[in-house]
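Hey team,

Filing this mostly as a record. A colleague (T.K.) asked me to run one chain through the structure pipeline before their review meeting, and I want the input and output archived in the tracker in case anyone asks later how it was produced. No errors, nothing strange. Just documentation.

Input sequence:
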Amino acid sequence: MSKLIRKPLNKKEANGISLIHEVSEDNSDLHYVSFKMVDLQSGSVYQEKLEKLECCIVAVTGKITVTEGENTFEKIGTRDSVFEKKPTDSVYVSNDQTFEVRADTSARVALCYSPSKSQLPTKLLQASDLGVEKRGEGSNKRLVHNILPDNDPSANSLLVVEVFTESGNWSSYPPHKHDQDNLPEESLLEETYYHEQDPPQGFVFQRVYTDDRSLDETMTVENGDMVIVPKGYHPVGVPAGYTSYYLNVMAGPERVWKFHNDPDHEWILK
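Output structure:
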């Protein structure tokens, strides 16, 4: 199996907490992005001290209460399934802070991290305030929820977005990359994809490749899997009959999303 794909851990811990995914510099080729997905039983509490990391806490499903210092955001989260296609609530917490997530119902929570040295205010990223956009044409259409886009100054490094791609469509397409620190032409952003499919027995295909093909992996991605993109182009194809959801986390030395299309396939935009 490719080292870029991660299956769910489903690692049950004490006090109603299950660790579903954990990606870090210690177990991947990533240096700017780390990620955890946790399932919380109703009433359970997850706590963490961030040190030199910032974190975007995404209420993927269920309702949670997030506390950091004097800030408390009660019963946030808007959906029981991502395929309700409603934006959800998130909370940004800066470095050197301690936060607590309490599950008001059963909940799946994404913890999206990147290095940070400059403290920013803790902030509720309310679902009703998120930018929602439709991208692409023909069989290249997708629905995007912008949780932390690069035009939102709430974070130092993190970029977080949700993407829904319908049956028979392509996403992150035409193939594009953002692995060169060469602004204004291209930014260096590592990326992770957390995937779900509807119905859940579905799958998608994701390819990660570089121009010189020193990296060239095509993966069958099932419900709950993660794909790590340290560099290269990274398109996603969705088979007929299924809908794709993924949660993207990006970070790099500059908080700018400036991508470069694969010139062999850019013609489809013309």
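Quick notes for T.K.: The first strand starts at residue 5 and ends at 6. Residues 5-269 form a domain with the Jelly Rolls fold (CATH 2.60.120.10).
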